[in-house]
Amino acid sequence: MERYNFKSVEEKWQKLWEKEKTFSTKVDKNKKKFYCLEMFPYPSGKIHMGHVRNYAIGDVLARYKLLQGFNVLHPMGWDSFGMPAENAAKQNNLDPKIWTETNISNMKSQLKKLGLSIDWDREISTCSEEYYKHQQTFFLELLEKKLVYRKENYVNWDPVDETVLANEQVIDGKGWRSGALVERKKLSQWFFNISKFSQDLLDGLDQLEDWPNKVKTMQKNWIGKSFGCEIDFKIEGELPVKNIKCFTTRPDTLFGFSFIALSTDHEISKFYSKESDFIKFKEECSKTGTTEEAIAVGEKIGFKTDLQAINPLNPNQKVPVYFANFVLMDYGFGAVFGCPAHDQRDFDFAKKYNLEIKTVVKPQNENDNFTVQNEAYPGPGTLINSDFLNGLQAPDESVIETIKILEKKKLGKKQINFRLKDWGVSRQRYWGCPIPIAYDENNEAHPIPKSMLPVKLPENIDLNVKGNPLDNQKDWKEIEIDGKKYTRETDTLDTFVCSSWYYLRFCSPKEESYGFNKEEIDYWLPVDQYIGGVEHAILHLLYSRFFMRAISYENKNFDIKEPFNGLFTQGMVCHETYKDKNNNWVSPEDIETIEGKKFLKKDKSKITVGPSESMSKSKKNTIDPENIILNYGADAARLFILSDSPPDKDVQWSEEGIASSFKFIQKLWSLNLKFLNQIKQNHSKDSDNEIEKNTNLFIKKITENLENFSYNKIVANLHELYSFFSKQIEKEYKKDTLIKNYKKILIIMSPVIPHFANECLHNIDSKENSWPSYDENILYEDKIKIVVQINGKKRSLLETKPGISEENVLKLINNDKTLLKYLNNTNIKRKIYVKDKLINLII
Length: 843
Ligand code: ANZ
Prior knowledge:
Elements: H1 6-19, E1 33-38, H2 49-67, E2 71-73, E3 77-78, H3 83-92, H4 96-113, E4 124-125, H5 129-144, E5 148-158, E6 163-165, E7 170-171, E8 174-175, E9 183-192, H6 198-207, H7 213-223, E10 225-236, E11 243-248, E12 259-262, H8 276-285, H9 292-297, E13 302-311, E14 314-324, E15 335-338, H10 344-353, E16 361-362, E17 381-383, E18 393-394, H11 396-408, E19 412-418, E20 423-424, E21 426-427, E22 433-434, E23 437-439, E24 445-447, H12 474-477, E25 478-481, E26 484-488, E27 492-493, H13 495-498, H14 502-505, H15 518-524, E28 527-533, H16 539-552, E29 564-570, E30 573-579, E31 585-586, E32 591-594, E33 597-600, E34 608-614, H17 625-632, H18 634-642, E35 651-652, H19 655-681, H20 690-707, H21 711-728, H22 735-749, H23 754-763, H24 776-779, E36 784-790, E37 793-800, H25 806-814, H26 817-823, E38 830-834, E39 838-842
Parallel strand pairs: 1-2, 1-28, 3-4, 12-14, 28-29, 30-35, 36-39
Antiparallel strand pairs: 5-6, 5-9, 7-8, 9-20, 10-11, 10-13, 10-19, 12-15, 13-14, 16-17, 17-18, 21-27, 22-27, 23-24, 23-26, 25-26, 30-31, 30-34, 32-33, 36-37, 38-39
Helix pairs in contact: 1-23, 2-18, 3-4, 6-7, 17-18, 18-19, 19-21, 19-22, 20-21, 20-22, 22-23
The chain binds ligand ANZ.
Ligand ANZ binds near residues 250 and 253.
């Protein structure tokens, strides 16, 4: 039998789609739109299996919507600024631009081989001037609206990459890319005022019904709304300090108060700035990173001041004031009142400096003598040892009561705080979007006039310098505006700024005058379905939500706040891990399997098989998509990556799995040949209506599975479909019946295996391009059995069609000899009919 030549078929269709611009979006605004977007890749050089999965999922959806008659926007672009380009260029003595462009062209051709329904006419690249000039305009607009500002700040400094990291980019105290221990450093930086929108970003989450709950929870926690109060503590001591304000969520623990701790940057530090012990202490503190995680796990250290604080609820109690490394300057007031019995940090600190630990909350099942022993008790309970607060239920009742008392005495007031910090967007790097700012001789920042945009990145520069290469570009740095001399800002923008609005650009990628065309975004936005990895749950998705709000702010022409209506987070692609006898990771390519056991190809030594883990270069358990496509074809790769597990769960890659997907496509091809053969026979009548009925059933199943993202079930449906039709096709059917139904079958296969399905459609001369509907009537033509009871006793089962009326059931009974015997010509007193299930006759 003729084999299926996937190579020539796939190549043919990809060329055809490209030539005929099959997927470029012809915007007929009368049609309903569907904007399907997968996260755009960083052009590292090669696509990986994560991309294959992400884009296969998106492509299935885009093709389905297209067949349903939507105007589908399905674009692709490149997140092409960023450090790896600069580092790679440095290592290989290349221009980052050339490195990036080469990678883009390579990856683009790889993506094309997957047969994606992408509108390449809309391709964008964030490192192109045509893109970043608009980003610079947005920056200046945000600056005018005071949503961008510059301030001196402690930053997370990555000593290896020599750049600032956002808090989100510090993981376990280490840089997310370099893995270096992050240090604290004071620098003047540009910030986006994202915290201004804390409440709005929180409220917006409730409207995002088609987002996974886990992502919404992660964002909620990140925004971190806290209810509490500010307390004004009276201060005594030699210094001219009268009071210190603290933010607390637990004012009810005030009777357990034993110290105040200040951030080393608190304004009171100015009185100590010349003391050598304090300077040493501060240096010690800066060894811990600035993130909360780093502070929480690090050792707590303090520096005692000469001040004393008075307890507002008990003026007889005076406690020492310290500087401490665990207090953040940019949260609350940069000052904390310490209650060691009920907060672990305070507990650790009190133990170290021998401060009182007084228990003021007891858990529900303890008596009033309860005392905290080896660790703090932060849980709920009843207040004790707290004078007039005793007996209140903590924290719900006690916090509200204490705030009322403090407000009455004018010692404090209710306050809401957010953990979300402003977004530091400055990067001391070359390969990024230049910040359109220049400084005068007094170091005052001025916007570059919009008429002078874009501020272009200089090309062909020396990257082999320490720190930011732009600092060394004298020619580029020094400029004149209106005859006056200025120095350019040399920081570039965090690449997350580029990805905060790229989905907007896709709507009008060629618009020159501005970042978007109003009419286009009014039609296309928001994105209907966004698909990407859950690792972006906080960073990219929160920044994008902020960016839309920032553009909308004080802007009558733009009122989109939520960029992504639906979000789908796909699972990882996993593979077994292998190690050789020396405990080194081994790539699957270097292994062979003999009788179920794995050996190293080169010396036949034994391999230890480890657990399956998400594919990563470091564990060498990656599979190259290009080889897979070459050996098995794009359809087989798509089919396999969508099979087995639901798209939001991890999928296990296996050689056997991809090989069996390949075989399955071959089997579908042989079925196709049988169909063609039967069509040729041109039989005069249909043996039965099974083909029609089952085509309907498969349309229904696959449509429903597409709607629910149960793409793995579609693969299962295709297997069912194969076994059904390969038997059925042996029977005789009319040509028309076969063609009519086979067309529909091929169409519903086409989102997953588009090359194969289109080739088969072509073989039956079909230009069909709309999603088939199904006929519920045919679907339910199956027979049902109705239980017939007489006086409650089962007497018979009647076979009939669903939906039958009571009257017709009675007619059937009257034609049934056995039943008539039971009825024996007596009167029927009562009839109880449960539709399609049972009839009970009382005689
Ligand atoms: C006294 C207290 C007693 C606290 C107690 C907690 C437990 P969330 O819920 O995350 O908002 N805090 C306030 N400002 C701080 C700063 N700048 N740096 C570090 N910690 C700070 O946390 C609020 C709590 O974090 C506040 O409540 C304060 O400690 C601390 F049994 O006040 B608490």
